[in-house]
Amino acid sequence: MAYLLGIDVGTSGTKTVLFCESGAVVASHTIEYPMYQPQNGYAEQDPIDWWNAVVQTIQMVLKQSKIDPAQIQGIGISGQMHSLVMLDKDGEVIRPAILWCDARTAKECEQITQIVGAQRLIEITANPALAGFTAGKILWVRNHEPENYAKCAHILLPKDYIRYQLTGEFATEVSDASGMQLLDVPNRCWSDEILQKLEIDKHLLGRVYESQQVTGQVTQKAAKLTGLQPGTAVVGGAADNAAAAVGTGVVKDNRGFTTIGSSGVVYTHTSKVAIDKGGRVHTFCSSVPGEWLVMGCTLSAGMSLKWFRDNFFGQEMQTADLMGVDPYYLMDQEAQTVPIGSNRLIYLPYLMGERSPILDPNARGVFFGLSAIHTKKDMLRAIMEGVTFSQRHCMEVMKEMGISFGEMLACGGGGSSPLWRQMLADVYGIPVSTLETKEGPALGVAILAGVGTGLYNNVLEACQQMIKVKDVHQPIDEHIVAYEKYYQLYTKIYPSLIEQFELLSHLS
């Protein structure tokens, strides 16, 4: 039997999953690592932490499964988008990676827009200059840390740093490269025009592949560290959300998914390029060759819930540990006791600024309507509802673009919550399903590895064989009516605070 390995380099941790060719999980292991915030709005990680987690999770998966590593036909890698990794000429990390949720690059985004032109930038990269994207981070290092920029010989994304460690190759693929603001998204190649205007040397960037193409093989050095077989094929893989799309079977028109991980995403597949001229949602290359995706991103989705858990649910975390259950399970039970609308409390999930659809790095989290009657349970449910409203807000922009949603699947950590899935169905007004396997991104890149190494003919065929839908949550009419009133109020709060957020950003 052939096996496929999927590695998902996330923000909170790395998860490595071994699948058999039918899509069933054989073994899985996750290792977490810290995120550092040296200043308000900054977010960084040490790429070495990612690599150590990859090595250890591969070792554990091989140990758990007891398979011969030679039976692993291919490896796919998924990872957090946009985050900047800079290496010197010897392949050593120069500085901590600047993450996707880092909001320091507002001035660099203005610089990019001025140099390239707002409309031209959207025409080429399908997106406006955003604080989370990689190009702004490159310019920030050049502007603020010229000594580090001078040392830079290679610019990589998180999963591509892992690819380098596994194979020695400097490469990326179209879905992840789309989020760097350096790719010609309609034509699926580096944009010479953007690179020349921003004065970024093209040789700093890796070769761009399609997601299922083989990009290299596991080296002797990496094999010795991980236990993998030398020569095992490593395919392009995909950005986390593009990988989740493959892992949920969202690889054809009229299908979408919602994922609630550290960030929250509403995503749909399109066989034609569709670009929002206002840049409120993002168009990237899909992992299906010659096709695209449209997505809206809530920066602090699951991150909002984790922040609240870590700061206010210490007792529940201890109880969960004693019970042997996930703390989020107990939090779900508490949120379930609070009515729709959280007793007239609304949350804006802007802990790290926001990307879709408001494009404001200065925005910050808000509890609106907080009063003496509210408890932490009300605040908890308000967070879940606020994140869901944010994702609905993105979905409405996509509808304006002529995109329809016939099917919606839920994945990510939040997608495992029945309460949150029902909330999504009620706020969206459409059925929301989940899958037998909850390994969205890891399964997605394993599927790509199967296609790239000849186990399957194409991505759609592989998805049909490896993915199975199970629970379906139907929207409840009375819930739709109740949520709609709160959603409409939610959309009015941020516009009233734009000037105040700007003033707050300048206070010492």
Short description:
With 508 residues, the chain is of the alpha/beta class. 42% of the residues lie in helices and 20% in strands. The chain has 19 helices and 24 strands.
Give the overall shape, derived from the CA principal axes.
Answer: globular
Average predicted local confidence, pLDDT: 95
Structural class category = alpha/beta
For the largest beta-sheet, the strand count, sense and barrel status come to: 7 strands, mixed
> Compute the gyration radius: what is it?
22 Å
Instruction: Please indicate the percent range of residues in DSSP E strands (runs of 2 or more).
Output: 15-25%
Q: List the total number of helices.
A: 19
Helix content: 40-55%
Low-confidence stretches: none
Explain what this protein looks like in three dimensions.
Helix 11 (302-312) packs antiparallel against helix 14. The mean pLDDT is 95. By secondary structure, the protein is α/β, with parallel strands linked by helices.
Core attributes:
seven-stranded mixed β-sheet; alpha/beta; 508 residues; single chain; 19 helices
Question: What topology does this entry show?
Answer:
Blueprint: E1 3-9, E2 13-20, E3 25-32, E4 44-45, H1 47-65, E5 72-79, E6 85-87, E7 97-98, H2 106-116, H3 118-125, H4 134-144, H5 146-151, E8 154-156, H6 158-167, E9 171-173, H7 174-177, E10 183-184, E11 189-190, H8 192-198, E12 207-209, E13 214-217, H9 220-226, E14 233-235, E15 238-239, H10 240-247, E16 255-260, E17 264-270, E18 282-285, E19 292-298, H11 302-312, H12 314-323, H13 327-336, E20 346-348, E21 366-368, H14 376-400, E22 407-411, H15 412-415, H16 418-428, E23 432-435, H17 440-452, H18 459-466, E24 469-473, H19 477-505
Parallel strand pairs: 1-5, 5-14, 5-15, 9-12, 16-22, 22-23
Antiparallel strand pairs: 1-2, 2-3, 4-7, 6-8, 10-11, 13-14, 16-17, 17-19, 18-19, 20-21, 23-24
Helix pairs in contact: 1-6, 2-4, 10-17, 11-14, 12-13, 13-14, 14-16, 17-18
